Every structure is written in C-alpha cells, then in structure tokens.
Amino acid sequence: MDYKVFDDEILLKLLKTGDAAALEEIYKRYSEAVFMAAFRKVRSKEVAEELVQNLFISLWTKREQAHIEKLEAYLHSAVRYQVIDYIRSKIIRERYSQFAKEQLNVDENASESKLLLQELSIAIDNTIKRLPQKTQEIFRLSRYEHRSVKEIAQYMNLSEKAVQYHVTQSLKFMRLHLRDFILMGTALGALSRFFY
Fold it and tell me: What are the tens digits of pLDDT across the range 74-87?
C-alpha cells in the first residue's frame, strides 16, 4: 500500500489502529519541518533531533487517546512545547549547577576557616607556653578570664604597673610569633581578643 497518497486525516485514522506504516509516512512528511522549528529555538542539531524523536514516540504511544484534528498544526504545537520544556529544564539544571557550585565554595571556605582556626589555636597555645611562667599566668588571666589589671594585681600580689608590663611584653611576644597568622588577615578576628 502506498501511504504517500493518503491525506493526513486517513493517516491519523490508520495511526489510531496501530498502523506503524502510517507513523512512518507522517514522519517522512513532517519530521524535517518540526526539526527545523526545534533547531531554530535550541540551536543544537543533537537536541533538536532528540526533541523530534520524542515527539514521534509520544505520537505513537498516545495514538489511541490523542484527539488530533490538524496533524501539521498539532506537530508544530507539540514540538514547541517540547522546546519550552527543554529550555525550562535547562534553566533549572543551570540554576541548580550554579547553586551547587556556590554551596561547594561555601563549604570549602568553611572547612578552610575551621582548619585555620585550629592551626591558630595550636600556635597561640604554643606561643603562650614560651612565655615566662609569671607572664603566662598574667596573660591568661587578662585574655582568657578577662580580669582587669587591678584584679590581676590583687590576685598575684603585684603592682598594677608590673601587671601592665607583663601584659605589654606578652602582647609584643605574641604579635611577633603569630605574625604569619596576622598577615593572613582571616585570623585577625580570632586574634583580636588577644591583642586589643
């Protein structure tokens, strides 16, 4: 049977009965036109081919339920919706990809900051241990327990001037030995409680 002689209405009736040759004739008749319509929008031969393939697969699988009056108009409308769905899903994928990249950067920065703070904490402890015993104790009272010079002086039975001297010397020593962290800048926030 020569399907070329059938008009669209007859091909649709044959398609509804499951006639694969009718689908083949519809494909030959309209696939290039719907491909060009898709290609003009997506600008990708592979994507346009995939959309056209999906269109004809859908036409076949939904042949019994579909109510098609004008075959050519239906195919162009269907491929337009395929293009819209493709572009919409592409935008969603791109947004998700951008979000995932940003999230990854945030996680990496958080991990780097955590590691830097751990290193800083170890360096501070090691630097404090290098101070003379009395200076260490005064420094800890001043910076960890936030005691005033007067309180430390009374507690340690020292003059306020002596306490200020130990605090000043320990801060100079700390700045000198922790300068690498100070230069990194990111650690300044954590160091500020010691130096100011």
Answer: 999 999 999 999 99
Tokens 């060009």 sit on residue: 36
Element (H, E) at 132: none
Q: What's the DSSP call for residue 5?
A: G
Sequence length of the chain is 196
CA 165/CA 139 separation, integer angstroms:
11
Whole-angstrom distance, CA of residue 61 vs CA of residue 70: 18
The answer to whether 60 and 23 are in contact (CB under 8 A) is yes
In this structure, the number of other CB atoms found within 10 A of the CB of residue 80 comes to 14
Q: Is the Cβ–Cβ distance between 87 and 41 less than 8 Å?
A: yes
> Nearest Cα to 87, choosing from 31, 44, 145?
44
Whether the CB-CB separation of 131 and 173 falls below 8 Å is answered with yes
Of residues 27, 47, 38, 50, the one with CA closest to residue 77: 38
Cα(146)–Cα(140) distance, rounded to whole angstroms?
Answer: 8
Q: Which two tokens stand for residue 114?
A: 């955590």
The pLDDT tens digits for 46-62 are: 999 999 999 999 999 99
Q: Which residue do the tokens 């494909």 mark?
A: 27
191 Cβ contact partners less than 8 Å away, ≥ 6 residues apart: 120, 178, 181, 182
